[in-house]
Amino acid sequence: MVQDLKRLLDVARADLPSWLSVAVSDPRDPQSPLFPVEEAAIARAIVARRKEFSAGRVAARSALSAFDLVDIAVPMAEDRTPVWPAGIIGSITHTDTACVAVVARNRDARSVGIDLEPLTPLPPETVTQVCSLSELQCLPDAPLIAARRIFCAKEAAYKAQYALSNTLFDFKMLTYGHNSRGAPHLRFDKPVPPFIRGDRLALRQWTGFGLILSLVTLPVLHDAL
Ligand SMILES: CC(C)(COP(=O)(O)OP(=O)(O)OC[C@H]1O[C@@H](n2cnc3c(N)ncnc32)[C@H](O)[C@@H]1OP(=O)(O)O)[C@@H](O)C(=O)NCCC(=O)NCCS
Fold first, then answer.
1. How far, in Å, is the centroid of ligand 1 from the Cα of 177?
2. CA distances from 36 to 74, 84, 180, 181 (A)
3. pLDDT digits (tens, 9 = 90+) for 171-181
C-alpha cells in the first residue's frame, strides 16, 4: 500500500542521500496518459502490467520534477531498462499496490538500483536459488524473512550494476554480507566487467509497515590527482 510505503520512506528519510529524488505512486490509481514512445512499449501488455508500468512512469516524472525536468518521456529500452534523460540516472520498482522511482544527477552517483518487496517469507522452494545458509545467518530475522530481505537487496544491486555491466546474472553471483562496522553490502563472487571479484556494492535497506525497501547507489569515480 502506498500509505505504508510513505511511512517507510519517512523512516528512511534521514538515511537517504540528499541528492536522490524519490517519488511514489499507486498502480491502482486511474492510469495517467503515457507518451507515445512509452505506450508503444506496452501496447500488447495485460492490464496488470499496464498499471505497474504506468505507475512507474508517473513516479519517474514526479521524481524528475525535482530537477526541473517536467513532462519528460521515460522510454523502455530493448533490454527493458528505463531510458533516463541525459545527465540523469534512476531506477523504478513496483508491487501490485505501490511503486517507487528514484533519480539523481550523474555527477552525484554512477548508478542507482531500488527494489520494493513485501515483508513476507520467501517461498521455501526459492531460498536455495537466492542465497546460502551463511548469508541467511547475517540477518537476525527468521530464515524465510531473511531470505526475502536478501532477495530484495540482490534485486536492487542487480539493477544498479546493470547500468555499468549490461550483464544478466543469477542470484549466486552476489553474496550478502556486512563490513566490520556492520554496514551491509553485496559482494561480487566472480568478475562481471567493469566489476572485479570482491567488489562490494553498499546497501541501504529499511523494513517495516509490511514492506522491504532496498537501495544501492554506486559512487562516482574521481580521477586520481
Ligand atoms: C530487472 C528485475 C531485477 C526486475 O525486478 P522485479 O522485482 O521483477 O520488478 P521491479 O518492479 O522491482 O522492477 C521492475 C523495473 O526494473 C527496471 N528494470 C528492468 N530491467 C532492468 C535492468 N536490467 N536493470 C535495471 N533496471 C531494470 C524497469 O524499470 C522495470 O519496471 P518497468 O518495466 O515498469 O519500467 C528482474 O525482472 C530481472 O530481470 N532479473 C534478472 C535476473 C535476476 O534477478 N538476477 C538476480 C539478481 S542478483
1. 22
2. 11, 16, 50, 48
3. 999 999 999 89
Give residue 223's pLDDT band: very low, low, confident or very high (50, 70, 90).
Answer: low
Q: In the numeric block, which cell numbers belong to residue 70?
A: 517536467
Indicate the top mutation candidate among 84, 155, 187 to test ligand 1's pocket, ranked by most ligand atoms within 8 A of CB: 155
Segments making up each domain of the chain, as ranges? 18-108, 119-204
Q: Which residues line ligand 1 (CB under 6 A)?
A: 52-53, 56, 76, 79-82, 91-94, 115, 154-155, 158-159, 162, 168-171, 173-174
CB-CB contact of 95 with 60 (8 Å): no
Q: Which fold has domain 18-108?
A: Ribosomal Protein L22; Chain A (3.90.470)
